[in-house]
Each structure stands twice: as structure tokens, then as C-alpha cells.
């Protein structure tokens, strides 16, 4: 893939996801920990980001499958809360996110040493799935902040998610694509910082789109 | 027949733009779908709508149906049940019937498209004709706990495919080939799901003599033991003393399901002389199904096993409250107490029915949430997109594929 901004232009990409089954499953927290430590990064990404789009009409859902499963299938509500509270946006890479998930579960296992480990009922095991991403250039290209705002209204939620979440986490960029463009190509640090400060995990897609638009408008960029 | 641009009003133009982007990458490839029945059941229904739309997008596709006699379909019904984990394993004679019929189809089908997409176990032996082209096996049933011997027999063929597709993570088995997770879908513009005016609904109800003077509980399914129509009657009988309602069991039989008439007679017997139970063995009539679902107060899908249970999405798309078993792909469609009610037993189903029948506001909320969940996850446009990505994945092994 070419860099999505060249000189002054920003090309919007979109990504489409296909879920691949890994054949790996866990039936209790110890198995879950072992799998989280060794599974493909694409699977960690899948289970920490899937909720965002499957339930995009809801006010933000818990951002990871691990928290949901631990609470729902194992009844380990304290661990579920701890996993759900992980601040996904603060992690710059899947590797760091994986470490945090592992740490939270390890600590919980350590603190629960004196009681029996709960196992999921047959058929309720955690099945690891991974996300295969297909990334395509779209026809939307912006040369100015105003054109950028126009495109923002037209692109799909997939495109918005790609630039806000996936490019940063799976392509090892330091910040989201929009902030990078405003900072490096437009020389506009303020909107870049403001977009970077957005916690995309606590916005629905509609709210996220509007929040970016508002940043540009209130910042006098448009 | 609707064309792809007609979907813009439902899913938005941007979704259609994405489909065109993915389709562009499949230019020059030909895809052939193969299954065992041209009508009846979810697979035929999806292919009827999907194949023309794929062609319209520029992905050259066709659909072929294998041939088989009654004894072959008796065996494949048994295989179907075995994959679901019920019944005796195949015996030698049954395997011979299956293989002999498979050989006939191998000799009479070209199977030379770039991508051969084989649906369910009936045509599975066509893989014997694999050359340089790519082959996908799509399992539409719950294979989480199959009868071991029969599964091993099928593995002899499955393992030769390039990829397998399942509808739920719980359905898959450990396999040496790539496995993908793709849910089936409903077509919001099909006869079965399109919007319908009250006058038209009334006309269909009159045709089938369905009164609407009482709350109507409906299950629409093939007459198949795995759909538990007798269990539905039992649940209704537990509700009836508290809510004066009516039960409608409507469905037909498919070409590849020889047990349909036997189960239909069992259902008639279970219904007895209750005049508020209507058993409708109807021909394929999608508009009537649409009307019946829209006229119902609550829709049931009390299956014992389920491939996916698309009737749930059909009902949710019509903003209907649904009571359904927590099996197969149903929990992917219903979040309990949010977009429907899940149950595990006849008593649980009866309780959920009473809750819904006695609380119309709650019922409306379940239906509204359900419709939005279907809009985001179970419409045909999403399904087409994932199939195109599946086709592309056959030529790209990496987790992040750039174009």
C-alpha cells in the first residue's frame, strides 16, 4: 500500500474484514491466559475490536470479547470488569495490548489461588477467531481540510475505523492517520492533537464522525 | 428482480461502493456454486438472490444443482443429522449409495470454474475433480459435535478443499485447511422480506384462512424434528390458560428432506382438536410468509439444533419480538432480553411467550433493537462482501492484504 498522504493530499482507504477461525479454544481463565500469550496478533485485534462494529448502533459496548466471555460463561465478574476497564486506546501496539491483557488475567489467577477455577459449560468455550483485513484505496482524496471534511461525511464506517484504529494498531503507526496528515502535511498541530485525544472506543461511529467534524469546525480549520 | 443499486436506500451508497471495490479485484474469475436443491431451505434462497447480484457486480457466477434419487437423499438426510450429532452412523450400504450418486454427478458436471463453491455435504465428493482451481466447502449446519464415524468419512473429502466456511465459531472442527466464519443473511428486498401494505397482508391471511382476532404465535419452519414443532405446541399449551392466543405452525418440505411428511403427521397428532392451533403445510409462497410474519404477535424458532436459523433474522427485520432456542447461530442474532428472548426448554419458551404477550411495549422494544442488529450484521450485502473477500483470500495467505 502507498502511504495514504502524499505532499498535501490525503487518500482515504477502506478496509474490509473477514473472520478466520483459528481452531484454538479456552475453557477457563488459565487456558485463556495461555492462549492470549501465544495467539496471533490478528486474533487479539479481532477480540478487542469486533464489538465496535457489530454493535455500532448501540451506545458503545464493552470493547473486548474476553471481558464478555469471562463474565458471561465463567461468572468471573471481577475479572470481567478488570478486562473491560483496560484502556485500549492507550496502547500503541497489539503487542502492548496483549501484555496488558495477560497481566490482568495473571494477577487475577494469582489472587484467586485458594479457590477452584470455574470452567465454561460444554459449548460455551472461548473460540479464538482472527481478523483478516483487506485494504483498498477509495476514490475519496482530500487536498484541503475542507475537502477532508466533505469526504469524512461520505466515507464508510469501515474507512473511518481503518484510519482511526487499525492503521495505528496493526500497521504500527504512532497515531491515527488523520492526526498524522493534519500534523505532517497541513502543519496543523491543534486539530491533530485534538483528534488524537479522542477516545474512539467510547464513541459510536456516528458520534466519532461528528466529533472529528466538530474539532475541525471549532478549531477554525473549516 | 432487484438490482444492486436498489439496496442503497437500506444500507447506504457507501456500502455498495465497497462491494464494487472488492468485485473489481475478482475480475476474470469465474465462481460456480453447487448445492443439492434449487428451492426450499436457506441455501437455495440465498443463492437465488446472491448469484444474480454477484454477476451484476462483475463477479461471473453460476449455480448448479446436483442430481440424486430418493435413496441418495435418504442418506444425505442421515448425514445431515449425523453432523448435528444425532442418529446412527452411516453403514456400508449407505456409503455406497452416497458414493455412487457422487460419481454420477462427477461424470456429469464440469467443475472447471476458477472457484468451486460447494454447499453442504451432499455434493462434497465433487472435490475428486479438483485440478488447479480453488475449492471451498461451505458447511451450513452445526458440526460442533458430529457422529464420529460419519465425520471421519466426510473428512476424507473436506481435507482436500482449499478452505471451509462455518456459520458460527462453535460449529467448526479442527481441520488442516483454513476455516472462515461467515454468517448467512436475508435479502431485505426479496418477496419474503420486502415492505408490505396492510391490505396485502390481509389478502394473504384470508387466502390461508388465518384469523387475527387473537394474539398470534407463529413458527415458520420445515416440518423437521430438529425444529421441534411438537415442543412449540407444548409451549403454546402452557401459555394458553393465561393468554387467549392462537398458534400457527407454517412450513413445507424440501426436495432433499424425505422425513417432512412423517413429521407433519406427528405435528397434526400433537395439535389434537385445539381449534386455535393452525397447521399449515404450505407450498413455497414467500409473499405469504412475509405477510404471516408481519401479522404475528410473536415469532418462535424453538429448534433443537440449528444451522443458523435465518427465520429469526427475517422476523427481527420485521421488528417482531422473537422467542428462540439458544442453539446454533440463533444467539448470534439475538442478545437475550435486548433483541429477543432466548430459551433452553419448553418451560422457558412458555415463560418468554407470556412475558412478550403481556408486555407490548417491551415486545416492541425487542423488535426495534432486533431490526437494527439485522441491518448491521445479517443483510445480503454484508454476505456478498464476505464471500468476495473469501474468494480473494484463496489467492492471499497473509492476515493484512493490501491492494
Q: Strand order, biggest sheet of chain A?
A: 1-2-3
* Helix/strand structural class of chain B: alpha/beta
Helix content of chain A: 40-55%
- Element-by-element helix/strand order of chain A: EEHHHHHEHHHHH
Query: Judging from the principal axes of the Cα atoms, what is the shape of chain A?
Result: elongated
What does this structure look like?
- The complex is a heterodimer of chains A (222) and B (403).
- The longest helix of chain A has 18 residues.
- In chain A, 41% of the residues are buried.
- Chain A is elongated.
- Chain A has ten helices and three strands, in the order E-E-H-H-H-H-H-E-H-H-H-H-H.
- Chain A is α+β, with helices and mostly antiparallel strands.
- Chain A folds into two domains: 114 residues, no CATH class; 75 residues, no CATH class.
- Chain B is α/β, with parallel strands linked by helices.
- A six-stranded parallel sheet of chain B has the order 2-1-3-4-5-6, covered by helices on one side. Chain B has a six-stranded parallel sheet with strand order 9-8-7-10-11-12, sandwiched between helices.
- In chain B, helix 7 crosses helix 10.
- The model of chain B has no long low-confidence stretch (mean pLDDT 94).
- Chains A and B meet through strand 2, helix 2, strand 3 and helix 7 of A and helix 2, strand 6, helix 14, helix 15 and strand 13 of B.
Q: Could you write a compact summary of the structure shown?
A:
The complex is a heterodimer of chains A (222) and B (403). Chain A is an alpha+beta fold and 222 residues long. Chain A has helices at residues 29-38, 41-54, 65-72, 77-84, 94-111, 145-154, 157-170, 177-184, 189-197, 205-218, and strands at residues 5-6, 9-26, 126-142.
Topology of helices and strands:
The complex is a heterodimer of chains A (222) and B (403).
Chain A: E1 5-6, E2 9-26, H1 29-38, H2 41-54, H3 65-72, H4 77-84, H5 94-111, E3 126-142, H6 145-154, H7 157-170, H8 177-184, H9 189-197, H10 205-218
Antiparallel strand pairs in A: 1-2, 2-3
Helix pairs in contact in A: 1-5, 2-5, 3-4, 8-9
Chain B: H1 8-11, H2 13-24, E1 30-35, H3 41-56, E2 60-65, H4 70-83, H5 92-108, E3 115-119, E4 134-138, H6 148-158, E5 163-166, E6 178-181, H7 198-207, E7 216-220, H8 229-239, E8 246-251, H9 260-271, E9 277-281, H10 286-295, E10 298-301, H11 310-317, E11 322-325, H12 330-333, E12 341-343, H13 346-358, H14 360-377, H15 380-393, E13 400-402
Helix pairs in contact in B: 2-15, 4-5, 7-10, 8-9, 8-13, 11-14
